[in-house]
Input
Amino acid sequence: IVYVPGDTPKIYALRVGGKTNEFYMTTIGGTWTNKPEMPLVGSTGKKKKAKEGSAGAYVPEQGRIYALKGGNTLEFFSFNTANDSWKIELDVGKPTGTPAKKVKGGGALAYSSVANGIYAFVGSGTNEFWLYGFSSYLANSSPSGIQGNAKKTNNFAFTITRHPAFVKVAYTLPVKAKARLTIYNAVGELIYTAENDKGYFVIDTKKLPTGIYILRFRANEFKATKKLIIH
Output
């Protein structure tokens, strides 16, 4: 079940355990209406029913619902609420890895505007936790390292270089301007902020606990977001 806010709030629900992957929508206090079913055939090319571990999360900026099929699969879909259409997305973990087990009981999704993506628990008796990033420079989850090393747009460049004791964040701009770098932890708490016009920031990673962090850069209209994993 997924709640979709708006002028007319809605609730979407996926029926599991049936012969097909029935999908419904209702307004608050209204009646249920049929929506296109989640595809039986997903990334595997085989018919799979939604079962234990299925989950959903709404992304308001996109107007899309993202969903796990569950049922001992890694299949992942999105549903466009504007035109009532389903899309097959990359399997959980792709393209950077593969979970140790497929999604069953305990599978869950949650959207994070800070991370600009969907967090997923695989469940199935594991503690695996993955991130599906939306932007072109924020790749899918990875067990270690930095996602997306460089972003270039016209005369704007943004790069991250990893060193044993620190991370250097370098940038070039077409005009001189003050830049701001902020870092958030996995629960969205601001843990670092700095401004300068020197063309780089140096972050002492020895002071950061092991975990996933989101770096956000902005200088006038130039912006970038990266994921940093400390281990």
Residues 136-152 have pLDDT under 50 and may be disordered. The chain has two domains: 2-133, 157-230. The chain is about 0% helix and 45% strand.
